[in-house]
Specification:
heterodimer; A: 159 residues; mainly alpha; B: 161 residues; 7 helices
């Protein structure tokens, strides 16, 4: 892994982007807009399952409407995040907060997929199952936690 | 220049709470977190409505239904974002008021995007009554996306000054 990180850092186009103020700012911009879209839309579905948002609407059409936007956001986040990571791979990789963040994102993604697949079933039930509510709560907490972990990364980089 | 403005900013920056936020270890990212969590809710829901007005995901809901589902959380998101944003501003107020990217964002782009958002959100009830949205709705929502991307671009550029 450390050798892979060194190799990533030296890829010519990664070096070009990392050293250009304009290009790296553009990558950050895409990362921000991507997670706004991802977290904002996922949060609405989770809040609907928890019974606090859009109570007068069915879950399935709302989830069907919002998940494609969330996954578009995720695509933007992964593409830009990869460039951000590659440019400083040897610094990020050993940092604990960074690893925690990636773990949270992975778990939140799995929960999102489950929610999307199950929304039709839950909609037909008389009331949303308790397990679904726990899942929605965990998803919400993980995404918001991932934002905090991401922001704390610079403060925890070992010197 | 506006010495009174600089005075206010200095006082803001020297508030005991603000000084503590800047000096305490690990505290600053929490302010950024408030700003970004609010923005996720605000821009995530705003952009979702814009995409629906542009015609994405027609088979699920009308734009009016989606707008109705998102409305209160949309504005709650802005409230959280403004709270976090104001605190971020307070930590380095004197520097921020002289920053060209910050000024462009706060004085020009943000009011413009906000006014346009209110317009699009109100109109979405009529534009979004049917599955297909009129051409004017598509143009207006595209315009809103461009406006918010410019706000975010100016914001990302702030540290480069």
């Amino acid at each position: 892994m450390p050798r892979l990180c060194e190799w990533l850092e030296q890829i010519p186009w990664i070096v070009t982007i990392t050293n250009s103020a304009i290009l790296i700012s553009l990558v950050w911009l895409v990362h921000y807009l991507g997670f706004f879209l991802l977290v904002g839309t996922t949060a609405i579905v989770d809040l609907r399952i928890l019974g606090v948002a859009a109570r007068n609407q069915k879950l399935a059409p709302l989830a069907g409407q919002l998940f494609p936007f969330a996954w578009t956001g995720l695509g933007l986040v992964i593409a830009s995040g990869f460039i951000m990571f590659a440019g400083q791979a040897t610094t990020f990789y050993p940092t604990a907060v960074f690893r925690i963040k990636m773990g949270m994102v992975l778990l939140a993604f799995v929960f999102g997929v489950i929610v999307q697949r199950k929304s039709l079933v839950w909609d037909d039930a008389a009331s949303v199952p308790t397990a679904a509510k726990w899942l929605a709560f965990a998803s919400l907490a993980l995404w918001i936690g991932a934002i905090l972990a991401g922001l704390e990364v610079p403060a925890f980089i070992p010197v | 220049m506006h010495t009174w403005l600089v005075d206010i900013c200095e006082q803001l920056q020297n508030l005991r709470l603000v000084v503590w936020l800047v000096t305490a270890q690990y505290a600053y990212p929490f302010i950024q977190w408030t700003h970004f969590t609010g923005l996720s809710l605000w821009l995530g829901t705003t952009l979702a409505l814009d995409f629906r007005l542009l015609g994405a995901g027609k088979k699920f809901q009308t734009a009016a239904q989606l707008s109705d589902a998102l409305f209160s959380w949309n504005w709650l998101g802005l409230g959280i974002a403004v709270l976090g944003g104001f605190t971020l501003f307070a930590t380095a107020a004197v520097g921020y008021i002289d920053n060209p990217a910050f000024r462009l964002k706060l004085i020009v782009l943000l009011p413009l995007a906000l006014a346009w958002h209110i317009f699009v959100q109100r109109k979405s009830r009529t534009w979004g009554r049917t599955r297909e949205t009129p051409a004017v709705a598509k143009l207006a929502s595209l315009m809103e996306i461009v406006l918010w991307v410019s706000v975010a671009t100016a914001a990302v550029w702030i540290p480069n000054y």
